[in-house]
Amino acid sequence: MPKTAVPVFTKPFVLYQSALLNTYTERVIHGFTGKPITLGGQVCPPEQARANRELVCKHTGLSVNRLTLPRQTHTDQFRLNDLPCDRETDAVILTETGVAAMVQVADCVPIILYAPDRHVGAVIHAGWRGTAQSITAKVAQTLMNQHQASPERLLAVIGPSIGGCCYEVSAEVAEQVSQTIPQAAASLYTSLSVNNKPKIDLKQVNTLQLQALGVTQIDILPACTLCETERLWSHRRGEAGRQVALLELKPL
Ligand SMILES: [Zn+2]
What we know:
Layout: E1 15-16, E2 28-33, H1 46-60, E3 67-68, E4 79-80, E5 91-94, E6 100-105, E7 109-115, E8 120-126, H2 128-132, H3 135-147, E9 155-158, H4 171-178, E10 190-192, E11 198-200, H5 202-212, E12 217-220, E13 243-249
The protein binds zinc ion (ZN).
């Protein structure tokens, strides 16, 4: 697949936020970045990615000196308050204040969880492989079982990713993803493309995984990375840029 050039940062970047989580701005910093900056990717020089991360920290108030940016490998693995950067994991659970966590995406689903009753949270990278391994459900369950977060109060934000409008997949992928939510009717998250191939709504699949655990407060940001050509990076569009989901707990 052809890779487009990585643009140089010239102006403030797109930042999506959740109205649900914005009711807790005194407790958490959160958001989902977009173009024109890139926070990683294979063709992005490390020094440029670092400079762009510093820029994001400056504009959002994240702790630039305590930043964790995992090396993601499409697994169901997660770590706790992980420092430093570049260790393999696909989600970071935060229980400490002042640690800034980012996960990179460019079509995969970025998810932020926050439990206001326990002041713990998580950022998750859930592509189809992570979704098929129920990474979101596993992280949410860990917040509940090990950190006493109640499902009723847990807030979940499903960030910009490739949408059900555009995400055509193989029958095998559709099958693997479906197995994580056997209780749900397939019509809730699948449709057929014009080519008669399955299309999957990964945001909806992750939502259904959370709902199966009793989570009800779920904010789904509708933006699709493939439709939003001006605002978001898309791997399927052949772009090499990466956006991030970011989260930091503030001291109470
Ligand atoms: Zn779309």
